[in-house]
Amino acid sequence: MKIITWNCNGALRNKFENLSELSADIYVVQECEDPARTKHKEYSEWAQNYLWTGDNKNKGIGVFAKDSIDLTLLNWTNQYRDHNVKYFLACKVNKDFDLLAVWAHHNNSPTFGYIGQLWKYLQINKSQLKNSLLILGDFNSNKIWDKWDRWWNHSNVVDELKELGIESLYHHFHKELQGEETHPTFFLQRNRDKKYHIDYIFASNTLRENLDKIEIGEIEKWLKVSDHLPIISYFNL
């Protein structure tokens, strides 16, 4: 099974063919428009088997799969105390494993933006993280931005997931440490000198043991259509 996560930087209707060339089983795409409300016929036809969530029709997060794959929405909560965290989309794939799609958003939070949103989501849904699970998407985060006076830094989230047997596939496969990645996934303003690793695929033990390989898309190709590169994972499932 081939699973990809990619922040398309908007207007997936003009870019979905780039994904189709990769011929994956599942695509998790951030900053994409709602296929149900698009006027773009080809994009709507491409997105026949999908789940999507977002605050407006133009930018949200979607899980797109081949017609033969069953996607079942999971009723995990986004409500943390008195407000919603965003954007998170949980589903079950073929009744085999759970998938949590992530686009960690600032969400107008003065303190809990980006990785703080994921930290909150994990707190309210920790009891759900018991099955075989993939957590993947744009975390908008890296260990290099940890702040010493916060208990919900990138490193804290990584440690909490590790306690649950959930670890980053990139770091597992390439034997690299958090914050010391040699392959960037994001180029600020598409500037090759402003490169960061902020997109991830985390997996529970069972799925991690079935990983065949993991790749990051070619800079020359993908930087023409987005400021992010896709992460491409291959599983023996």
From TrEMBL:
Cited InterPro entries = Endo/exonu/phosph_ase_sf (IPR036691), Endo/exonuclease/phosphatase (IPR005135)
By its UniProt entry, which Gene3D superfamilies does this protein fall under? Endonuclease/exonuclease/phosphatase
Q: Where is the signal peptide?
A: none
Q: Does the keyword Cell membrane apply?
A: no
Which residue numbers delimit the Endonuclease/exonuclease/phosphatase domain? 4-228
Kindly list the GO molecular function terms attached to this UniProt entry.
Answer: endonuclease activity
Q: Which UniProt keywords apply?
A: Endonuclease, Hydrolase, Nuclease
Q: Which domain of life is it from?
A: Bacteria
Please list the coiled coil stretches: none
Name of the molecule in the record: Endonuclease/exonuclease/phosphatase family protein
Annotated organism of origin: Zobellia barbeyronii
